[in-house]
Amino acid sequence: MIHELSLRWGQSIADTLNTEEKAATYALGLELIIIQGISLVVILGLAAALGLMKTTLLFLAIFIPFRIWGGGPHLASFACCLPVSCILILGPAWGAAAAIWPSPVLAGAAGAGLLLGVWAVARWVPADTEKYPITDPQVRRQRKRIMARCLLLWSMATGFCFLQAYGTAAQALVAGAGISLLLMSPAGYTLMGFIDKIFEKEEGEAA
């Protein structure tokens, strides 16, 4: 349903702007916006019900800009995307709220996240997909610059929370960066591809 609706709206936008060749691009963008919007509403609703709103919002404050500017794979269907998104976001948010990590562990995790982030900016960003490749060198450089700024702001916010002994907040920020950086990596593409295959197999058996 979402896919068909996105195709219809994408075609309508292309007709209005007289850019017929971009109809598929518009449709893909609309589909991602709709899926992610619904997922966000569901995730925040569950976070409120579970008492995880604070850590979930802190997680998303890093996860969303890292995903927008850093990139990474997307799952093929809404039925697959929604439960996986809930697990990837609410799981770490619960972990950040459940217990305070020892200071050396938190500092080590933040340091590892910073090093991984620098590597990601240099090697993986923008982490595009087959459906939406980013080939323009100028756009790629711009995405790298913005992602580098996001990484700098994350490191400053995490460092502040750590020094002020806001352990839960620092843990949520570290978790948000860690999950989003993992998704940009080759391992993230492999994991999402594996999950897609599982859902495709289950849908095929159900049919």
The helicity comes to over 70%
Tally of alpha and pi helices: 8
Report the average pLDDT across residues: 86
What class, by secondary structure content?
Answer: mainly alpha
Strand content: under 5%
Tell the overall outline. globular
Distance from N terminus to C terminus (CA atoms, Å) equals 17 Å
Uncertain stretches: none
Radius of gyration, rounded?
A: 18 Å
Give the oligomer, counting copies of the same chain as homo and different chains as hetero.
single chain
Describe the fold and architecture.
By secondary structure, this protein is mostly helical. It is built from eight helices and no strands. Helix 3 runs parallel beside helix 7 and helix 5 runs antiparallel to helix 6. The mean pLDDT is 86.
List keywords for this structure.
207 residues; mainly alpha; 82% helix; single chain
